[in-house]
Amino acid sequence: MTKTAYLFGEIHGSEAVCLKEFEIWKEFYDGGLRHLFLEIPYYEAQFLNLWIKSEDDSILDELWIDNEGTAGNSVFDREFFIKIKLSCPKTVFHGTDIGHAYNTTGKRYLESILPNSEEYHLALENIEQGRKYYEAWKKTADEDYIEGNREKEMAENFIREFDSVNGDIVGFYGEAHVFSECVGNFGISKNMCSMIKNHFGSKIQVVPKLIKDLIEPLSATEIELCGKKYPAEYFGKVYTPFDETCDYIEIFRLNNPGNDFGGFAKKDNFIPEMLYPCGISDGEVFVIDSLKDEKSVLVQIFICDRFSDEYGQITTEIDMEKK
Fold it and tell me: Which of 140, 143, 235, 294 has the most CB atoms within 10 Å of its CB?
């Protein structure tokens, strides 16, 4: 039987991305697809398959506690799953990442199933993948080696899961795992997608555009800067669990700023395109509002002003007090 995997590249923790991913999955689901592949461990997906058939959200709540502070633990990700349960209840989740949260989610899953079962074996293998990954980070700073091994194991996990299903599947993965040329690919020679494409050939269809390039602004607004009002597009919040200064950032793109910001001095601070939930182009100006406890703590202005082989398009912070 011929089957196809449709893979989409994303950034994690983005409100706009989570909304778009639900739209994408709902369209495929309405077309008859049931298998959704995600960048999560095998045992987390197994818990989600139990949760989607349950009467309450206690299983999901436990997973959220286990993953607190990680990039995929935003309120937007939780809403994504809740909407799937309500609108796509026959979804079957497949986790093909290494074993994150192996001491919590992984351990609890092993305790919930029969020893020596196939599920137990796969969970144990997944836990070992995670344990080796995190132990390697403690022993060496060789990022290429560590992440290269992760890509290899993610590919092996994907191949196993894809072989186990009948029919087409959809997969949502971080950009670096899907696009070999994508920023953030750790400089490794092969990523997950290149390996599975080498194994399956034309069965693997990577959607040529990143999800961010499919995203429309969530709303329109107006922002005043230097005494002038600019129409702007709002691209929602992005979760920032690794930044102690804020919980989320809100992203706005100014419409037709002209060269109003070209004469300002630049700060030694930049944001690469991989961290934006939307596509970015040369000359575009973004307003980044950092939120802590739902209150604005810092507003920064960035202009897309250069391209590098390492990071792709880059936005640099403008010093609004210096020209």
Answer: 235
Candidates 3.40.50, 3.40.10, 1.50.10, 3.90.1720; CATH matching 5-213:
3.40.50
Nearest to 96 by CA among 24, 46, 167: 46
Tens digit of each residue's pLDDT (9 = 90 or more) over 160-175: 999 999 999 999 999 8
Closest-CA residue to 162 (of 108, 100, 103, 94)? 94
Rounded Cα distance between 105 and 181, Å, is 33
Taking the CA atoms of residue 300, residue 79, residue 65 and residue 101 in that order, the dihedral angle to the nearest 10 degrees is -90
For the record, the structure tokens of 52 come out as: 């989607």
Cα–Cα distances in angstroms (integers) from residue 147 to residues 40, 160, 186, in the given order? 15, 20, 7
**Backbone dihedral angles phi then psi of residue 199, each to the nearest 5 degrees:** -80, -45
Identity at 65, one-letter amino acid code: I
Q: Which pTM was predicted?
A: 0.93
